[in-house]
Amino acid sequence: MFCVPSTQIGAMNITKGRLVLFSANSNSSCMELSKRISELLGVEMGKVQVYQEPNRETRVQIQESVRGKDVFIIQTVSKDVNTTIMELLIMVYACKTSCAKSIIGVIPYFPYSKQCKMRKRGSIVSKLLASMMCKAGLTHLITMDLHQKEIQGFFNIPVDNLRASPFLLQYIQEEIPDYRNAVIVAKSPASAKRAQSFAERLRLGIAVIHGEAQDAESDMVDGRHSPPTAKNVAAIHPSLEIPMLIPKEKPPITVVGDVGGRIAIIVDDIIDDVDSFLAAAETLKERGAYKIFVMATHGLLSSDAPRLIEESAIDEVVVTNTIPHEIQKLQCPKIKTVDISMILSEAIRRIHNGESMSYLFRNIGLDD
């Protein structure tokens, strides 16, 4: 459980006149999160107008002085992610040209974080976005549970990558009465480290789902069961031969660990396209799990995700309010929200007062 030491209550009042808190868009969910943070800090929201011109250009009008002040810009990622990014960049640049002392972005979910690796002839878009933010004038970034920790290296400014795991662990302990009979599940080997971290803190067992569902008919059609060709080298030049690798092939789906008669808690950082979660839930049901929970920091829940979750074997999906998802909750009562405004407000307070951030990372592992 995350809490603010009682000795620090009221510390913000000493220097709050030099702090300005802005919400970067008019999205109701972003305004709600900003309002919670401002109430915890005991400061009023800064006055700013962010709107779209008839030609879809974004316009920002800052309506108070920010000269020599610490400006914190809160921006959650809406469905229109590109407009969200432009709103943030334009507001940051407006504060820079208005002589703000420092400009700190509070972006709980960093957009384009899944595009952080080079794939074929693509590009590392999160690196591009980091460069744009720094060029616009951002001097510090507060975010939460980056998809890959290495994204911090894309910035040439300080980045505080906060963790939502204490809040999710608290939810498990308080809202799942028989959680002692649970097992933490990684829906793929890639998320095994996060699952292991959760399991160690809750003193529970762990299970890992590996492989993919096999369809014998389609396997025969596409030749996946055909023997590899005898020739295993490719001639590039008469004097140079490079060995050819046999294509990777996932084994039939298996569950490493016992989930029979247990509650299965699937943990991940992002839940967007829910197909893999649904497949994992079906597999766990077949193996005897009697309840299935999904815990994730960022609930993008795109497309038909709410309907698919409602019709699935999943009993509950728990996400934080890093991303607006009120509409999805109306479509699917199984979706629950955990509030993380407390840790964001404490991060803002500590940065503004020049205090150490280590308290926010106590007992936090690299794999959380």
UniProtKB/TrEMBL annotation:
Keywords: Acetylation, Nucleotide biosynthesis, Phosphoprotein. The keyword Acetylation applies. GO terms for cellular component: cytoplasm; ribose phosphate diphosphokinase complex. GO terms for molecular function: ATP binding; magnesium ion binding; ribose phosphate diphosphokinase activity. Coiled coil: none annotated. Residues 27-137 form the Ribose-phosphate pyrophosphokinase N-terminal domain. The keyword Acetylation applies. Signal peptide: none annotated. It comes from the Eukaryota. InterPro entries: Pribosyltran_N, PRTase-like, PRTase_dom, Rib-P_diPkinase. GO terms for biological process: 5-phosphoribose 1-diphosphate biosynthetic process; purine nucleotide biosynthetic process. SUPFAM superfamilies: PRTase-like (SSF53271). Seems to play a negative regulatory role in 5-phosphoribose 1-diphosphate synthesis. Binds to PRPS1 and PRPS2. Belongs to the ribose-phosphate pyrophosphokinase family. This is Phosphoribosyl pyrophosphate synthase-associated protein 2. It comes from Turnix velox (Little buttonquail).
